[in-house]
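Quick one: co-fold with (2S)-2-hydroxybutanedioic acid.
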Amino acid sequence: MFKHLQAVPGDPLLALIVAHQQDPNPKKVDLGVGVYKDDEGRCPILESVKKAEQIMVDNEVTKAYLGVYGAAEFAPIIQELLLGKDNAIIKEGRIQSTQTPGGTGALKVAADFISANLPDARLWVSDPTWGNHESIFRSADVEVCHYPYYDAVTNGVRFDEMMAKLEAETKAGDVLLLHACCHNPTGVDLSFEQWQVITDFVNQRGLLPLIDAAYQGFGDGLEEDMAGLRYMAERTPSMLIANSFSKNFGIYRDRCGGLSVIAETATEAKNAFSIIGQAIRANYSMPPAHGATVVHTIWTNPELHSLWEAEVTQMRNRINGLRNQLVEKLAATGVSKDFSFIAKQRGMFSYSGLTLEQVRTLRSDYSIYIADTGRMSVAGVSDHNIDYLCDAIAKVVG
Ligand code: LMR
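Sure, here it is.
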């Protein structure tokens, strides 16, 4: 039955986790997959999460099925986090949200929903984008197109080229995927003014924005990071938002995310949401409960909520501090390349500009694990490895 099948390579990013784990070099450095790490190189469980889990152990009374959307009381948390407490879209019932297995689960449901209900829609993604975006939408038979985004010369956004491409080639009903903040993989975000321009264009062309909000809190703040998304949501008739709790609650393996649909009217939103429910049932039936219960427990307990906000701030400040240190220490090595752009990038990642050859040399000769694209997970840098890392980069770059 399976004789004709050829093995395929695994996901290159996830393969880095295994390669790093198996590397015996005590100096090894993992800057691959996007998980937050503390100065000891551990991906810690947040104190707010630990405390919430203790409360859950003491109070949980059942593990009965929840239904396709997960816990009903979780949806308002998704909406408040994304749009802000008193947003009119929430009050008018124009947004419906479901718990999903991580942000990836949300994107997969969105892809199935688009494929089945908007069959002519093409998905427009930034060049580059998170590698899994393309796989998820292709697996749902949605055509994926690219718009220019990252400018390797200025380390900024090729905004004029981006808009020119969208102007020339998108058609009404196409889906435009934007990263809410902390663009993965580049760390280069759209400015608020650029969100305003894109909002006008989306409305004029009749596009459906799909916003991937996986790193809320890691850029400039939990509220600040949603400024562009909120501006657009308040001015466009329809929107899909896939969000993740993996990073800002540090509950990666618990797989907790959300998919929200915003529509012109409450009835339209409910109708679309019922179809999303069907897509979920046919996909994974219903999401796992644990992560969402953790988030809910924290969200509804004032003491844990403040502790969690402080922990998000601390993670963000640590990463931004590391960015500045990287810039200073790289410059101090006398390396020929100007790395000052790293301090301006935001979120977990930095598109370092290292070539594939340089990345491979760092891996083979120094046990430093960076994605093939040159994307570094800045959170993997620490006081213990920063000098070793900067010296190694200086050696391979020259
Ligand atoms: C990443 O880009 O490193 C994360 O989003 C983890 C993943 O699933 O790829």
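If it helps, The longest strand covers residues 95-100.
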